[in-house]
């Protein structure tokens, strides 16, 4: 089993600033749910890469800009392949909403073994990522790497307009 890793000040400041500039101009797409099943939550996303469902990805010029994040991850863990990379944007809705617990990658009806999930935070706010029962705060330029078979979820912020994360699945 993969042990959860958290790192602050993950990216070089200059690269972090570059990604934030890109995010300011990125095209966001409305998602009527935050997981697989309908819930009373929504988010905006930008799919950068999807090897699990390659027909879903329209050409995006942004993937190559985000690719160096993978080199930073390789400094901490070994992986063979990127499965999926997606930006998620959650809006402040006046109160905090905790999203539906889920697992990102399945093989049929069971979680795909060997997957490592990463949540990289672009926003310091009171939103969080919860993995099983443990909550991890959303802190700018921090990452959480964890066993992708663990149930997790995120939440909306109440003290900032948005919460933006980069969701990465590796094997």
Molecular structure report:
This protein has helices at residues 13-24, 63-66, 68-74; strands at 5-7, 29-31, 43-50, 82-91, 106-107, 110-111, 116-121, 125-131, 134-138, 142-147, 152-154, 162-170. With 171 residues, it is mainly beta.
Helix and strand pattern: EHEEHHEEEEEEEEE
Q: Please, what is the average pLDDT? A: 94
Q: Number of helix segments?
A: 3
Overall outline: globular
| Span of the ends, CA to CA | 13 Å
Give the tally of β-strands: 12
Give me the oligomer status: single chain
Helix content: 10-25%
Main β-sheet, spatial strand arrangement: 1-10-7-12-4-3-2
Q: What gyration radius follows from the Cα positions, in whole Å?
A: 15 Å
Quote the beta fraction.
Answer: 35-45%
Q: Would you tell me the structural class of the helices and strands?
A: mainly beta
- Can you tell me the residue ranges where pLDDT is under 50 for at least 5 consecutive residues? none
Q: How would you sum up the major sheet?
A: 7 strands, antiparallel
List its salient traits.
3-stranded antiparallel beta sheet; 12 strands; single chain; 3 helices; mainly beta; about 170 residues; 7-stranded antiparallel beta sheet
Task: Lay out the secondary structure.
Blueprint: E1 5-7, H1 13-24, E2 29-31, E3 43-50, H2 63-66, H3 68-74, E4 82-91, E5 106-107, E6 110-111, E7 116-121, E8 125-131, E9 134-138, E10 142-147, E11 152-154, E12 162-170
Antiparallel strand pairs: 1-10, 2-3, 3-4, 4-12, 5-6, 7-10, 7-12, 8-9, 8-11
């Amino acid at each position: 089993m993969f042990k959860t890793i958290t790192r602050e000040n993950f990216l070089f400041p200059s690269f972090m600033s570059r990604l934030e500039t890109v995010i300011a101009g990125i095209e966001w797409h409305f998602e009527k749910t935050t997981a697989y099943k309908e819930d009373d939550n929504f988010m905006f996303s930008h799919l950068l890469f999807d090897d699990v469902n390659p027909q879903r990805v329209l050409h995006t010029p942004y993937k190559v800009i985000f690719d160096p994040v993978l080199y930073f991850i390789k400094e901490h863990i070994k992986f063979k392949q990127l499965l999926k990379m997606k930006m998620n944007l959650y809006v402040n809705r006046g109160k905090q909403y905790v999203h539906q617990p889920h697992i990102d990658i399945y093989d049929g009806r069971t979680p795909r073994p060997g997957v490592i999930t990463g949540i990289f935070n672009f926003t310091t706010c009171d939103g969080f990522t919860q993995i099983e029962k443990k909550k991890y705060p959303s802190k700018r330029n921090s990452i959480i790497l964890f066993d992708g078979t663990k149930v997790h979820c995120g939440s909306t912020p109440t003290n900032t307009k948005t919460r933006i994360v980069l969701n990465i699945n590796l094997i």
